[in-house]
Sequence to fold (408 residues):
Amino acid sequence: MRIECIAIGTELLTTRRLDTNSVWLGERLASLGLAFHRKTAVGDSREDLTMLLREALTRSDLIVTTGGLGPTFDDFTKECFAELLGVDLREDVQSREDMLAFYAARQRVPPASNFKQALLPMGAEALRNPVGTAPGVWWQDPPAHPGVRIVMLPGVPREMKRMWEEQVEPRLRALAGAATHTLRMVVAGVPESTLDERTREARQRHGHLDWTILASLTQVELLARGADPAALATARTDFLPVLGEDLVGVGDGNLEDAVLAALKARGETLAVAESVTGGLLASRLTAIPGASEVFLGGATVYSAKAKVALLGLDALRLAQEGTVSEATSRALAEAVRDRLGATWGLGITGNAGPSAEGGAPVGALFIALAGPGGTVAKALTIPGDRLDAQLRGMASALDLLRRATRIG
Fold:
């Protein structure tokens, strides 16, 4: 099956917003043994969109669009498809009722323009939106294109994901044939190239599986796909000693999930003191349901004044040792652990740029972990831009804690 994704929105062609929808959809398709053969982003231009849709209808069996289903003047995905295929738009009664109920629950009256969202091309079926007002569209065998399926989804990720999981994926599962299973192994503290080299022999032993390595700023994922769950289970057993302590976990979840799970299993707690990461560490932890069982809280102490006022660091010592130093990271970890009565305290400070600060070069970071056995610290030099330094610093701090709290 040839599958094409079209992401619609001028904002996707600038630096304002990334197209994360197609990445997520690609992962969901892979679980069905399917894959995109083409992905395209197009701006809010009727002419450009119509041209792209016309081409897609000639080359793809399944066309998935995201965006352009809203109530405003630049939302015209359905209109372009309808005009191109020579059908009229009709109001879907259920979609109108869903919209009225959505607004009534919020004690609001929908603007007249919103009812545009309830219009569907003749012959198409509405995909109900449980978390928004724009229904999606499932259109099978549109005029003059037998065997083609069109799926139109909102661009809002949480709306798109719910519709796909609950209404689109079940339909596609019947078309996908034999299910494809995935083995996902998450690794931290190891560069992608090192992981590639280390696992080459093991991957060759399991060459009948489809292997992929995905690297991000915070972790590396090693993925194997195949139709036989037993073969994946054998590969998992074979890879455990190869990955060793660098293995964060197998299956769903990421570095922060593993840290919280380990702390919960040990009955321990965590507090954090962040300078260079500006609250990013606490944000990643609190995004996980149940984090409050483990994570007590933290302090974003970006300035020297905040370090003194909120955590009680000594101003003279701070001036002498510098805000970006191993000594300061240790002081942060110990102070926040003591103030919140946590089992563990993480402290992170550094210089993410764009210029040298207090004698510390750009990319210099210091992480410290204070715990029952004392305090350990780690110095890092992270090349790249500001976000690189913050994300990698955050991940390094979590990985330092993960390794200290490993069970077994």
The two ends are 45 Å apart (CA to CA).
